[in-house]
Amino acid sequence: MTDIAxxxxxxxxxxxxxxxxxxxxxxxxxxxxxxxxxIINTPEIENYPSVRNISGYEFATNLxxxxxxxxxxxxxxxxxxxxxxxxxxxxxxxxxxxxQKARAVIIATGAxxxxxxxxFEDKFxxxxxxxxxxxxxxxxxxxxxxxxxxxxxxxxDAIYLSALCSKVYIIHRRDEFRADAGLVSRxxxxxxxxxxxxxxxxxxxxQDRLSGLILESTKDGSEKSIDTDALFVAIGQVPxxxxxxxxxxxxxxxxxxxxxxxxxxxxxxxxxxxxxxxxVRQLTTAAADGAVAALAACDFIRSNS
Length: 305
Prior knowledge:
With 305 residues, this protein is an alpha/beta fold. It has 2 domains: 2-113 and 237-303, 3-Layer(bba) Sandwich (FAD/NAD(P)-binding domain), CATH 3.50.50; 121-233, FAD/NAD(P)-binding domain (3-Layer(bba) Sandwich). 25% of the residues lie in helices and 29% in strands. It contains 7 helices and 17 strands. Strands 1, 2, 3, 4, 5, 6 and 17 form a 7-stranded mixed sheet that branches. A 5-stranded parallel sheet has the order 8-15-9-10-11, with helices on one face. It starts with a strand and ends with a helix. The mean pLDDT is 94.
């Protein structure tokens, strides 16, 4: 039996481990892939307080080493089931290791950006292709950028980029945006934004970095090319909560129902990071969630001792 089991070793999960260990609580972190989460693929981070510039890999490694140095135990295993309740404790079963019992659980599995699924997408990720305009938009100041998507996030990204970039294309598969009318009105009022409606991104062009896109019409299948220095993909995210759907409540998109206090609908289980219902999904808010969830879990354990 451990005190807190944390599922996910991204920014939220590792921050939770740091706060739990500093509170003297026994902690085990489970990670299915590699520590760091999505941020590990970001070439440069410039929006984290007090850190002027750092690579995603270095940031994640520093966070991991800090958690381990404080005594957090990290197991690289995929959790396939969680059972139990606040009274008797929770049982986590991994794909490879034996089961682990815990008094409280923090789910920090994050969300994965929905990818386009086209050739060379992985090659150009971090080299012109990004899934976060507020994270990487500043790198393309004065340049040309494109946004792929038609919902609120895509339109907000295009508006945000219009203040940085000389020109912004917004590409949407339909002939009308799905975003709120107010956002669309603001988008269309900006002179340096050009909507490309009824198109999808079919191909990526460039050598070491992205230099252009091949678009395909959803109406007649015709193709056209545009030059751009960056493509920001905003076609949604997929939260990693399937394993827990019978234990905690999820919204219609699969995000765990939890507020700023990080309480789930199941007593003793807390949610931290991008897999919970929230408006802002940034590095700073993931770290904040980790701290809040860890302290809440510590309070829960002490009140039930």
